[in-house]
Write a structure and sequence with these properties.
This protein is of the alpha/beta class. It folds into 3 domains: about 150 residues, 3-Layer(aba) Sandwich (Rossmann fold), CATH 3.40.50; about 160 residues, no CATH class; about 70 residues, Rna Polymerase Sigma Factor, Chain: A (Orthogonal Bundle), CATH 1.10.1740. The protein is built from 17 helices and 11 strands. The chain starts with a strand and ends with a helix.
Amino acid sequence: MQRITLLGATGSIGSSTLDVVARHPDRYSVFAMSAHSKVDELADLCEQFRPRYAVVGSGEAAGQLESLLRQRDIPTEVAFGSEALCAVASHAECDTVMAAIVGAAGLAPTLAAARAGKKVLLANKEALVMSGQLFMNAIAASGSTLLPIDSEHNAIFQCLPVNYCRTPGNHGIDRILLTASGGPFLNRDVATLEEVTPEEAVAHPNWVMGRKISVDSATMMNKGLEVIEAHWLFGVAGSQIEVVVHPQSVIHSMVSYVDGSVLAQLGNPDMRTPIAHALAYPERIASGVAPIDLAKIAQLRFERPDFVRFPCLKLAYDALEHGGSASAVLNAANEVAVEAFLERRIGFGEIARLIARVLDRTPAQPIDGLDGLLEQDRAARDLTRQLIRE
């Protein structure tokens, strides 16, 4: 029985994970789960899955959750805050950690899981984007198993040779081809993008995702963060990672080899596929996802991304090239800018312009440890907020 700590249980990845877990009660149990503030939803999940621990973001939320659980006679222990997240992620009785907390908030518990030698299922790309070598060093030092959950990185992992990540050499790899749907504005007149509303930006044509990641898909910052994540996960240079716009979202990514072969992973756009793959790896289990009907799809389209339409993608490539703390600064500025856009305090086009200004005014620094990294993150957020006020 594999005991799972689910960080971010009420989000889209959390819901998909629990759907797969529920299909295999003989293989998986939920040891702990977290939600920042969705107390009612977390109480329902505790009633269904009976975890030993539930973690929320604040003392107030913890009190509300404890009251709900007592009313239902559910023995789950309640805790709150970052230290509690790190504790359940590194607990001796936990085998696997699904890291699905969105944004920088997921870094500390995900890093704690890596240092504790857990099987880490990484859905929080920001954790790796921010910490880079620091995170990969923790994985190597503890002997932790790191498996990607992003559909693109999971697809790449499936197309790589067995034990690629543990064996020196490039195994004949020429390029990684990272597919992107293009989001809701792929064919919209660029001149009208300044008028985009939050409602339009979160209406993804293929995937059901949270609001923040949906905006990232609309700006293609999500793909930029995935380029940086692929660099660290697979040890390839940014120049070897090519983004290909593929609106159907059927091919989730590809690996091109020096002999001319290109291996691709295909499937319906449903996160339960990569989640089931990572949970059971190296085995395969049912995910609940229907097989694709290629005849019904009929055709697959590909094109190169337009940096004029998607300037955030270019900013991510630039941050990866600068190295050091540049990726953490990029991520921090983006999180603050997206939040401001969703709150209608800035326009859609201002997201990329803000990030560019923050990167220009924040020289990249070496990353020596978590404290220094978090200080860079804090400073970038403060600068972004200042620029928004101005």
